[in-house]
Amino acid sequence: MTTNRNFDVIVAGAGSIGTPAALSLAGAGLKVLVVDPLASVGQGSNKRAIGGLRATHSDPAKIRLCLRSLEIFATWKERTGVDIEWYRGGYCYVAYRPEEERTLKELLVVQKASGLAIDWLDAPALLEVVPDLNPEGLVGGTLSPNDGHASPLLAIRAFYDRARAHGAEFHFGERVTALTTAGGRIAGVRTDKGEYSTPVVINAAGPWGAEVAALAGIEVPVRPDSHEAAVTEAVARFLEPMIVDIRPAPGSANYYFYQHHTGQIIFCITPSPSIWGTDVRETSAFLPLVAGRMVGLIPRLKNVRVRRTWRGLYPMTPDGFPIVGWAQELEGYMLAVGMCGQGFMIGPGLGELIGRLVLGAATEDDRETLTYLSPYREFKGQERLK
Amino acid sequence: MYRIKQHPILPIPSRAKVPFTWKGEALDAFEGETISAALFAAGIRVFGHHPKDGAAQGIFCANGQCSQCLVLADGVPVKSCMELIRAGLAVEPVEGLPELPRTDPRASRLTTARPIETLRLPVLIIGGGPAGLSAAIELGRRGIRTLLIDDKHRLGGKLVLQTHRFFGSIEAVYAGTRGIDIATRLENEVRSLAAVSVRLQTTALAVYSDGKVGVLVEGRRYALVEPEVLLVTAGAREKNLAFPGNTLPGVYGAGAFQTLVNRDLVKPTGRLFIVGGGNVGLIAGYHALQAGISVVGLVEVLPECGGYKVHRDKLARLGVPIYTSHTVVSANGADAVESVTIARVDGSFRPVPGSERSFDCDTLLIAVGLDPVSEFTEKAREFGLPVFAAGDAEEIAEASAAIFSGKIRGLEVARALGHDVGEISPDWYRTADILKSKPGAVVPERTPADETGVFPVIHCNQEIPCDPCTAVCPSGLIEMDEADIRLLPSFAREKGGKGCTGCEKCVAICPGLAITLVDYRKDAEFPTVAVPFEFLKETLKAGDRVVVEDTEGQPLGEVEVGAVRALKANDRTVIVKVRAPRAYAKRIASIRIQPAEASEPLGTYVRRTADDTIICRCERVTAGEIRRLIREGVRDISEIKAVTRTSMGSCGAKTCTPLIHRLFREEGIPDAEVVDQPKRPLFIEVPLGIFAGLGEKDRDHDDE
Question: What is the pTM of this model?
């Protein structure tokens, strides 16, 4: 099949970033095509996200993007009538040692300055919020009540449905194989199914971002590592916020879990050292590793029955921050990659920013955000709340 | 009151009573039985209501694979079909979302945690049914260290539910012996082999990419097993069917039914209706009658039953109407099955309007085929762990075929481990193929012309793999072409000067109950016909008037019972002798048991208007919701899952996946266009504390 059709924008990747970006772009009246090699929307990393939504980050760029995302998620049902299982349960980072207390308290400064509703709670106050938490040695923790969670599956579906309603086209089972250029700028896209002309291509290919960038001759420092996650049976609500424990332990860095809208506990752990590559096959190490830590933190979890496990990819960058912006090497080529496992929460806010960027309507705030996320930064820093 | 107190085949053990409570009411159970058995024995069939729509929940698989039978046992959600009753247990229904039991929040109180052990050994066998046991025997005999795990409380798999005599070959697979007894023989042999260790109540949870198999040991401890070779003999799961009312308590699989009746010895129903005329459905009907349960009818959508004709005939002759070219339209009732509506189908299997009929029943068995439990095999293949499969886990066939394929696979596993097993005879593979073969052609019955002396009449007129009759005749008068046990047996009047002595051994051993003995010696006008009968001897007595029928169940006349004999040598097959007119004596195959009133339809048909054809029973997703997506163009099952939550439930997409594929087919979508969803662990749900290595003591809770 050969087609030659014109689009205003072609997005590579119908995932956490590409889909809301397509919604913003199509909503602004642009003719949008989204191409994804997988069989349907969100089948790469989006569906593997556990659903946590927070603006509790360590830098102004992500805080700003995610505050906007949270607004979109939190108001989605009232604005569109579609339930995406949003729940405002908050995020709670716990501290059992002076190290974590110090880190969390230091971060409060930039978090508050960036407009985040967050506070330090001492142990008794924290236990009022999370009564099942192990009280032994608990120093305290932060609580950001406006954070929460939603279903990545339903949310991306909602964005997808709206994007299509605005005229965006989605081609699944189709892979971008080459870019066509003319006079140093994007002219079109070739796929394994056809050829399309467009002045703008957005790389939102998640863990495959570097490969898709290579088609444009651009090198981006994105490489995926993998994390495993699991979901339990549903039980009556007993846990409000997402619990994050950033203490390192043998075999793992942080781990986190929450009780979803459905009553299910969903949890995930960050392996240490990182497991690089695109292997998403389940391993025998995951459950014993995470179970020991969770049961130690909330003993009541010992009886909740684990239903299913899976493994997903985190497209990591050297400093732990996303890479977003126009490519200098090729006009009309935009990078929106390296979300470091936070694509779901960054997506809607970033999607809007991408829309403004393509339309040439970026604000002062956007420009500031983009300096943090620039593809051409030095990647020297290190995200402290990965 | 709902217990089976006597059974023609199964011994009824005397067991100690155990007190427990249901919703606070004191009840008695028997020691060693499951919670579901105890509840059924007390007449309780609704175990809770679904949090999404309040639908009543009850037994569905009775096999530990779904979670429909969930109850709260001392506050903890458990599968009632797998969990044994304990004295004083407080059992409660699950109404909405259960509360997670409260515990002491101090982690220091958790004292029993220990690291998860990894066990390395040559062979892990998942499943101790006919295939797994047979393979373990071959491996054990060769001294190959083998771990055999099974999630049930005893070995034998589904053999322990089979009260009937087995088909197949006497020489290869114990044909002519009852399934329950084959289980004991195989188990005894396995237990005698030092190289084989057996773990019961032990469930495989996942095959991981690092070649380890996650195992829940005895329901309370997690371990990893790293075998050099994995052998999957985990059997099959029952297919389900989509129709309005299909998840009402009382609608469940024929295998589940056999578990309740033949393992748990409860009478889960008074009036049963069966959907599906394969061997499983036909045999379930037979087992129901043996347990004293009325079988109202059986529908089969095809023009002929797919099971062995001898099974079909056996059931029809006992008085069960078999409606071929019919389907189930709906199961009716509010909180449980009260009636079923069936209809004739047209050439494209759609119900013909106006042909609906309803029947009073409280249980509807779904026996529409089996699917292999293939997830472990598939994962092992994907991950490069050497794996073999045998029995139903490899290919759905009779248990006799599973015994034989297990034996062959056992040798193949030994060979894969470098043991010299010699050449596995090509005859073995041929026998394996024969045992798996589908029933063949039906040939007209060959009634002997003779009307003198005594001789057997063989009412077996379909080619099936079965030969016990040829082995028992002391004069060798019943013969079959040795090359193929699927061929029909034939009777020779005389051989080497010897003729039939009327010993009745052939009558007793035929698994199809398809041999009678007609004796003209005393009275040529009213010969005596010996008929096999697998009911309690007391059911009939000399002098009773009974209706006798031909092979397919057509009544021939009413005759008088002459004698009822239960000889020990006949292994619970009773021989009933009737005197019948010469005109039809040779055509008699059986005696009708069930009165015609038991199967009469209701005066009017019951229409179920609720749109509750459920595809995903865990998450209560209807066929309508999924059809809508298919019609919108959705082809990726993962997308259906994302939108509807189909297959996100506790059964692990085991039940809904085949139904979704079926919906696609019904909507005219070719299989090649449909994208399947990935399969993920765990096989069953397991408490988090078990993965943390917590011992029993720490997993108790302390909300009292």
Answer: 0.95
